[in-house]
Specification:
By secondary structure, this protein is mainly alpha-helical. The protein has one domain. Helix content is about 60%, strand content about 0%. It has 3 helices and no strands. α1 packs parallel to α3. It is elongated, with a radius of gyration of 17 Å.
């Protein structure tokens, strides 16, 4: 089995990809948690605590909350 590369052994492009994906994950989680905190419990599908915990699952949790965890207002 090949050994894992250290950060300083990665190509510059690979480092930037990791940084950009990490920032995107943090931004998505921030948006989801901010919405969850501000939204009344009656407008959340399920438990706010469970959704808050789910946001810590990389990309999947925050995206799932934003797509399925909120009750969208009908116009």
């Amino acid at each position: 089995m090949p050994r894992k590369k250290q950060w300083n052994e990665l190509k510059v492009v690979s480092r930037w990809r990791i940084v950009i994906l990490g920032l995107a994950q943090l931004a998505l989680q921030f948006v989801a948690l901010r919405d969850l905190i501000k939204r009344p419990a009656e407008q959340v599908n399920g438990s706010k605590g469970a959704w808050a915990a789910a946001t810590f699952l990389n990309f999947i949790g925050p995206a799932a909350y934003l797509l399925f965890g909120r009750q969208h207002k009908s116009k």
